[in-house]
What we know:
By secondary structure, the protein is α+β, with helices and mostly antiparallel strands. The chain has helices at residues 5-21, 55-65, 89-98; strands at residues 29-34, 40-44, 73-78, 83-84, 103-106, 113-116. Strands 1, 2, 3, 4, 5 and 6 form a 6-stranded mixed sheet that branches. It is globular and about 35 Å long. The structure holds zinc ion (ZN). Zinc ion binds at residues 54, 56, 87-88, 90-91, 126, 128-129.
Amino acid sequence: MELRDTDRALVQAATAVAKLRCRSQRHTVAAAARTADGRVFTGVNVHHGSGGSCAEPVLVGTAATQGVTALETIVTVADRGREVVPPCGRCQELLRDYFPALRVIVGPVDALRVVPLAELPSEAGSATAG
Length: 130
Ligand SMILES: [Zn+2]
């Protein structure tokens, strides 16, 4: 699927948060997601030896605090020019349970595309945990 203007705006939002807020080893990845009615939520990962959290669950919790339980599209961007990264395996599982119809923006920045969450190849590990 090709990117809509709103998808490009979402990538910009996540990139801006990554640049502004991911400036230490504690926060290295930012995620942004949009609801069907256009609200945007963002989150950063929380890196810690106790386990911490990827940016996606932080974002889901942020949306939930605003009463939002349905997200349409998500993108995750890593700090220091590491570009768009897919959700890790654990986050894919979480997102599938919470938002089975979620669209995910993936790919290199010059060739981004949108894929249904269900079609993302499962990835082991926690690449987005930073
Ligand atoms: Zn993750």
